[in-house]
Amino acid sequence: MDFLDSSFFQSKEHSQRLPTPAEVRALSGDEKFQPPPVIVEHLNLLVKFGPCVTIAEAQCLWLIRRILGDKVPVPEVYGWRVDGLEVFIYMQLVRGVRLKDRWEHLSAAEKTSVCGQLCGMITSLRQVKQEPSDQFIGSVNRQNPQDIIFLNMPAHGPFSGIKAFHDWFSSLPQRFLPDSQKFQDPLRPLLPDDGPITFTHADLHQGNILISQHGPPQILAIVDWGQSGWYPDYWEYCKAAYTCSYSGEWRLQWIPMFLAPRPDEHVAFAEYSMQIGAV
C-alpha cells in the first residue's frame, strides 16, 4: 500500500520510490527478532519493521491523522509492505526527543504544560467512536487485541462487547485448572461491563511521547501505536500505570493530570496481568 496523497509522494524532492524491504534490511544489518527502526535521513523517513509489526499499526496512524489531524500528532504514514513474515511501515521521521530523556530537566510548570497537552490529546482521541450498533473490543482492523500483556496467550477476539472481553480476561489465570478446581473470582466484579468502549493507545509512557528538543516543551508526536485498538475506557489508565514504577512520581502525580485514575479496575488489571506472567 502506498498513500500517494502523502507528503512523501507529493514532494518533488521525494519523487523516488520507497526503499524495498530488502533495502531496508540491508540498511539495518540487524538480525534481532525485533530490529530497531531504520532511519533514512535524506528522505525524512523512518521504517518500522519486523515480525511483530502489524498492518493495524499503519492503519491506526492513517486513521488518527485523517480524522483528528494535528489534535493528536502522529507520524504521517507513507505506506506499508508485507514481505514474508515481516511488515514494513514507512512513516515520517519526527525530529524530536523522547519525553523520558528531557523530563528531569523540565520545571514543574513545564511538566504541567506537557500533561495539559496530553490531556487535550486524550480528549480528542476519545472523539473517535464506533458505530453504536456495531461495537467490539479488538484492533482497529477488527482483529484480536494486540496488547502486549496477551503476547503469550492464545489469540482470541475480537470480542462482541465489554462483558465478553472481561469474561475472557478474567478467565486467563484459571485457564489451566480443571473445572472442579476453579473458584469464584473475587476481582471480576471490579471490571464494569456497562462502560464505554474507547479508542486507546495502550502504551502511553514517556518513551512514546516525542517533544521539542529545546525551548518550552511541545509534544511533536505520540508514537508506537502497535498495541492500540478498541478497549474499555479504563484500559488507557491501567496500561499507563503498568508501564511505570508503582510508587513513582510519574504514576502518582503526573498521569492523573491527563488520565482519570481508575483504582478499582487497576486492582483487577494488575492482578490478572501478574497471574498470567505479563510483568
From TrEMBL:
Which residue ranges does the record annotate as region Disordered?
A: 1-21
InterPro entries on file: AGP_Transferase (IPR051678), Aminoglycoside_PTrfase (IPR002575), Kinase-like_dom_sf (IPR011009)
All copies of the Aminoglycoside phosphotransferase domain together span: 69-241
Q: Which domain of life, per UniProt?
A: Eukaryota
Q: What is the name of this protein?
A: Aminoglycoside phosphotransferase domain-containing protein
